[in-house]
Write a structure and sequence with these properties.
Radius of gyration: 29 Å
Number of strands: 10
Order of helices and strands: HHHEEEHHHHHHHHHEHEHEEHHEEE
Number of helices: 16
Number of domains: 2
Helix content: 40-55%
Largest sheet: 7 strands, mixed
Structural class: alpha/beta
Strand content: 15-25%
Length: 454
């Protein structure tokens, strides 16, 4: 009765739950306004999520369409620190913006969730804005520096592989300490499990594919807004770098190799150009005498003379070189991109030529792979490899050279002028705009997922 009298003058009777939801909405709307005033480029992503009260979660959660919140916990945290609410709101939005919630089905869930939280916290902690600034955490800063040393773009995907490869001991410590934990990930629409979600109006399930594409559009709009200088932004540029990698379209390594194909006549029966009508007519009229024979030559596209240079400087990981070789050989063996007889030079080079292994047939690939050992680990200079390949061309060893692939981390001395052949630099990791290549060179940024034999 007391609660009913309290709202007796209202147009609509409000329950305690409704009141909490109203307060929760007000807190988040206030937070959204503060974030928008500080960072105008956040207009699109901040308005992409609808607010939804849910007392069954610990604090915040999102599924790409809604931002779910526990009103009691939200109000408690707001009283303690409005900045914590701003950071949490932005944290959930960034999970959607960078599509963390739609990916990671093929990864270790616990490590992937941690990697996503670190990636988002890294960006927010780099923002020099009072609405999201907290007291510096020295333990977090140590982790950030360790990640920066290992990956130019500190993204969730790159962090995941660093954690799995060289920081497994630290993973459980970070998880146990809740160092980066902010929101609940149980609503994430992972690739292997399209969750059924219904809103408070009991509408049909949302289409996660549609929402994912909407976030693609939001990311592009936000990048345009950032480039136009809307808002003060983050002083260290971490958001710009991460968003540039997010919106950069990535070609598969297998498709990229097709750019280096050439055309020649190969010794195969070309059944596509064979006319069975004339053949049968000759057999019927003249007995055992067909009018035409099968065409013994067939025009094919493939790679004949080719060069792969492996950067064996100290900054490149040996296991990644091995995986790059494995995937490259798999492409050669499983597609028609290469001819049966090839002239493939695999050159190891740091700041000088360490080895040139020539492969003439597919059988030699196995021999090379079994005996492969990285050599070098000095500084990085791309020029010796280009000079060496040019000398091979002049000697006639690479008469039909279509191109050169240079697998590297991208940090070295490039040739001063364009070579007489096509060249591409293959970088591991997400796109990094700060990693420049000469205007005459092609570049391909590949993820570690692409270095897995399918």
């Amino acid at each position: 009765m007391e609660q009913q009298r309290r709202y007796s003058n209202s147009d609509e009777y409000m329950t305690g739950k409704d009141h909490l939801a109203q307060l929760g909405n007000k807190v988040l709307e206030t937070s959204k306004q503060e974030l928008f005033i500080a960072m105008r480029y956040l207009f699109a992503p901040l308005n992409q999520l609808k607010l939804d009260c849910n007392q069954g979660i610990a604090f915040l959660a999102t599924d790409g369409g809604s931002l779910y919140y526990n009103p009691i916990k939200l109000i408690e945290k707001y009283k303690e620190s409005p900045v914590a609410i701003n950071r949490a709101y932005l944290h959930a939005v960034f999970h959607c913006l960078f599509k963390h919630i739609y990916t990671g089905a093929d990864k270790d869930k616990e490590v992937w969730d941690l990697a996503c939280d670190i990636a988002v916290s890294y960006i927010i902690d780099g923002m020099e804005l009072s609405c999201v600034m907290e007291v510096e955490n020295t333990e977090k800063e140590k982790i950030y520096k360790a990640l920066e040393e290992r990956c130019p773009v500190v993204s969730a995907a790159n962090i995941y592989y660093v954690l799995m490869r060289s920081m497994r001991a630290e993973v459980q410590k970070m998880i146990a300490a809740n160092m980066f934990y902010v929101d609940d990930h149980s609503f994430w629409v992972r690739e292997d499990k399209q969750k059924e979600r219904k809103d408070d109006k009991n509408q049909q399930n949302d289409d996660s594919d549609k929402e994912s594409k909407q976030w693609d559009d939001v990311a592009r709009k936000m990048q345009t807004a950032l480039m136009s200088g809307q808002g003060r932004g983050d002083g260290k540029g971490k958001l710009r770098k991460a968003l540039g990698a997010r919106t950069h379209s990535q070609m598969s390594y297998r498709d990229f190799l097709k750019r280096f194909t050439t055309v020649r006549e190969n010794m195969h029966i070309d059944m596509d150009s064979f006319d069975y009508g004339f053949y049968n007519y000759g057999m019927e009229v003249y007995g055992n005498m067909p009018l035409i024979e099968e065409n013994e030559y067939k025009e094919e596209s493939g790679i004949e003379d080719f060069v792969i240079v492996l950067d064996t400087s100290g900054s490149c990981a040996f296991d990644l070189l091995e995986r790059f070789v494995d995937v490259t050989f798999d492409v050669i063996n499983s597609s028609e991109s290469f001819f049966d007889k090839i002239n493939l030079h695999i050159i190891q080079c740091d700041n000088e030529i360490q080895e040139d292994y020539v492969i003439r047939s597919k059988e030699q690939m196995t021999e090379f792979r079994e005996a492969f050992e990285a050599k070098g680990f000095g500084g990085t200079d791309f020029r010796p490899a280009f000079q060496y390949v040019e000398s091979l061309r002049q000697k006639g060893d690479l008469k039909k050279l279509k191109g050169l692939l240079y697998f590297t981390d991208g940090y070295g001395v490039y040739p001063g002028k364009r070579p007489s052949f096509d060249a591409a630099f293959v970088f591991l990791g997400e796109y990094d705009a700060d990693r420049k290549v000469p205007g005459w060179a092609m570049r391909l940024d590949i993820s570690e997922e692409q270095l897995v034999i399918q």
